[in-house]
Specification:
381 residues; alpha+beta; 2 domains; five-stranded antiparallel beta sheet; five-stranded mixed beta sheet; 13 strands
Length: 381
């Protein structure tokens, strides 16, 4: 549905909207997601199809495709790839995956890096298809016990856009994975970006990868004929109704504060997007970018984020160089990272900054003040 330059779409399972997406007219602009009615409103027969396919972590992929056939028949006509993909059980912005409102709000699933080009994205973070009200702490504890023993939990996900996948089944398993600070490997259904049909070869394009069908094992390819569909639900009614829907069935909540704390252990969508566009991370390239000046700030920012994400010790050295140079667009990110590093060199950097700055940059000053206050022996237990 499109109105006033805004496009709205819904992920519908049978007649039940699970997710609503909203974006404006330009492809790289910000997309917004909202929770729909929730999978608890889906008929039991359809839910059984989803459950049966979600947690088989041992079967080969070609067997999985056969088991997934009833679910694949519910999708729009097209070419899909099925694979096991690890997902961070977060929203991509440092919060638990449950953090999704019934009103479309900005989030991090589609990575607009501001001064960086839009990263293409791939399945990495999870969107819930039911509300947090239905989180049962007893079931979460059962799955946490399995996760602590190293057993794979599994889930079923459908890649939607950017770095976000809709979690069709496995919300309690994802919550357990979050609290145990481990990724959740989901059987993930991904729509092909493009299909190239030539005289001698058919090529499926998935993001940057080009997969030649002739190179795939014959058992890995399935042609599935979907049954005749009923008329599609009234999309405007679905979209308008989803935002106002609330369930009256409420279970005891899991601990939101513990989940929020655990979410900090996972990378954010901005970091993954930066890593995907950073390119070479060698010292020579870093020196060349530093010498080129502010016009190369986007590339330098991406490299800094990639070094931080990979725990590369060069991240501290680069952040210090940025902080000491004229890189105003990068200062905030560099300061925030340095505030996590406990060394005499970093402490001296913040002291010298406060002496030189004389209150000209209050946001940076606040970061430095907080860092030095934590390091002050008088504030230690």
């Amino acid at each position: 549905m499109k109105a006033n330059g805004v496009t709205k779409l819904a992920l519908v399972l049978r007649d039940t909207p699970l997710l609503v997406t909203q974006s404006d007219w330009c492809p790289p602009c910000e997309k917004r997601f909202a929770l729909g009615w929730g999978r608890n409103q889906v008929d039991e027969e359809t839910l059984a199809l989803v459950r049966n396919a979600s947690s088989n972590m041992e079967a080969p992929t070609d067997v999985l495709v056969e088991q997934l056939s009833p679910v694949l028949c519910l999708l729009e006509e097209g070419v899909y790839l099925v694979s096991r993909v690890p997902h961070s059980p977060t929203n991509g912005a440092g919060k638990p995956f449950w953090e999704l409102s019934t009103e479309p709000r900005p989030d991090g699933y589609v990575a607009d890096l501001g001064h960086l080009e839009l990263a293409e994205g791939y399945p990495a973070f999870l969107l819930p298809t039911q509300s947090f009200e239905h989180c049962n702490p007893d079931r979460v504890d059962q799955y946490r016990e399995l996760a602590s023993q190293g057993q794979p939990l599994g889930g079923l996900a459908l890649w939607i856009d950017g770095f976000g996948s809709a979690l069709l089944d496995g919300h309690h398993r994802a919550t357990a994975a979050l609290l145990e600070k481990v990724p959740l490997t989901c059987i993930t259904i991904m729509s092909a970006t493009e299909v190239e049909v030539g005289d001698d070869e058919t090529v499926v394009r998935l993001w940057d990868a080009r997969i030649r069908c002739s190179k795939l094992p014959p058992r890995a390819i399935r042609a599935i004929e979907a049954p005749l569909r009923a008329d599609a639900p009234n999309l405007p009614r679905v979209l308008e109704g989803a935002a106002g829907y609330r369930s009256s069935e409420v279970h005891a909540s899991c601990d939101p504060s513990a989940m929020t704390a655990a979410a900090a252990a996972f990378p954010t969508v901005r970091v993954l997007a930066a890593c995907s566009v950073a390119g070479e991370l060698n010292d020579q390239r870093i020196d060349e970018l530093m010498a080129a000046g502010e016009s190369r700030a986007p590339e330098l920012w991406a490299i800094l984020q990639a070094l931080i994400a990979s725990s590369d010790p060069r991240a501290t050295a680069l952040a210090l160089r940025i902080g000491e140079g004229h890189w105003p667009d990068l200062w905030t990110d560099a300061f925030r990272y340095l505030a996590t590093v406990r060394t005499e060199q970093v402490e001296d950097f913040f002291i010298q900054f406060l002496i030189r700055d004389d209150g000209l940059h209050p946001r940076l000053q606040a970061i430095a003040d907080k860092y030095l206050a934590r390091n002050d022996p008088r504030n230690r237990d």
